[in-house]
Specification:
Beta-Lactamase; Helix Hairpins; five-stranded antiparallel sheet; about 375 residues; Heat Shock Protein 90; about 20% strand
Length: about 375
């Protein structure tokens, strides 16, 4: 008997058309009658569930469901026919299905209803969202990794900045204390002078000790080792871009990405470079919040001397001359909130890779940030 023969209740004139649909529809398609009995099972459904159509047609569709839906499906149908209240028909939902081997997998299910003569039929369109869930979990993992690395980078930059700022006054205090010791060196050796000498000597000792602690901290931060590996630059950009654009759909940003085939591989620390991309893309998004046109362009190009150049361009208001002069310095920002160390982190990471980072204000509108990375072997 042909798949979907006329005795199942279909008009003979539409059989060829129906068979064509069942053979070519990309998502799994299952047609059942009002009692839940399977009338047709598409080729995509065979592939998705692991059953042949001949093994499913004539049986209750609940065989494709895990518990508790498997046990309740007939009551769902009866309740709908009795009350007319649809809980899924015409609405769709995310649920789970059961493969022939017993494994369950996530699906997106949409159901439509039609009448054939005096009878009702229900058509289910089933889309396997396993890959989508895996992608979302991967994005969440990457976001957590980037957030963790971002916090560590911010702390390192903050510590480095504090070390630089504190070292100078500590050195000055030490000099003052040494001068004071010299001033009282030739005075009478009474009890007060002796105590003063002891206090100043202790102060010098403690200041020098603090200076050594600061120096060791700076050396530790500056020599922090990273693990470089050959990475696909388009993949790094795609993943960082997906993370940075989370929550910005309502901004209506037009994103364009262009890759130079000659700039595919880079030799980098993957997480650190994604942190740079994430910071630059988020900055670009923030810069375009009040702009009438919101266009974000990310591109790569092979450069000289074995380096690749990555560009992130926005259509925001640009960077003022006042801020531009010290843009990569820590604690400098044009934002209403924020610590102003994001670009400092970017510069630290890029320079640790042997590259450099800079920006250009566009002639018409917006800003382009560019940075270079070492090219990896293809």
């Amino acid at each position: 008997m042909q798949r979907g023969a006329d005795q199942r209740g279909y008009p003979g004139s539409g059989e060829t058309h129906l068979r064509s649909i069942l053979a070519t529809v990309p998502d799994a398609m299952v047609i059942i009658d009002e009692h839940g009995v399977v009338l047709s099972f598409s080729a995509a459904a065979e592939k998705l569930f692991g059953y042949l159509e001949s093994e499913v047609v004539g049986r209750n569709v609940s065989m494709l469901m895990p518990s508790p839906d498997r046990d309740r499906h007939d009551s769902y149908l009866s309740n709908y026919q009795r009350t007319g209240v649809a809980k899924i028909i015409g609405i769709g939902r995310v649920t789970t299905a059961r493969h022939r081997d017993g494994n369950e997998f996530p699906i997106e299910l949409s159901i439509g209803e039609a009448k054939v003569g005096m009878h009702r039929i229900f058509t289910g369109f089933i889309h396997d969202i396993t890959q989508r869930q895996q992608t979302e979990m991967r994005l969440q993992d990457l976001q957590s990794e980037l957030a963790h690395v971002g916090r560590l980078s911010e702390m390192s930059t903050l510590a480095s900045s504090l070390a630089h700022e504190l070292n100078q006054p500590l050195t000055a205090i030490g000099s003052y204390c040494q001068g004071a010791l010299q001033l009282v060196h030739g005075t009478l050796d009474d009890e007060a002078v002796t105590s003063l000498r002891e206090v100043l000597a202790d102060a010098v000792h403690e200041v020098l000790r603090a200076g050594e602690i600061v120096r060791h901290m700076r050396e530790f931060i500056s020599r922090g080792d990273t693990e470089h590996s050959i990475e696909s630059l388009p993949r790094l950009i795609a993943e960082a871009n997906a993370l940075a654009l989370v929550g910005s759909r309502e901004c209506g940003i037009d994103v364009r990405v262009g890759f130079d085939p000659q700039a595919d591989c880079v030799l980098v620390d993957r997480i650190q470079v994604q942190q740079v991309l994430f910071n630059l893309i988020r900055n670009a998004i923030d810069a375009m919040v009040g702009s009438p046109m919101r266009s974000l362009t990310i591109s790569s190009a092979a450069g000289p001397s074995g380096f690749v150049t990555v560009s992130v361009q926005d259509s925001g208001s640009g960077i003022s001359e006042k801020v531009a002069a010290q843009l990569f310095q820590p604690f400098v920002t044009s934002k209403a909130s924020g610590m102003g160390i994001g670009l400092t982190i970017c510069r630290t990471i890029v320079e640790a890779h042997g590259g450099r980072i800079w920006f250009e204000n566009c002639l018409d509108r917006g800003t382009i940030f560019r940075f270079t990375l070492p090219k990896g072997p293809r």
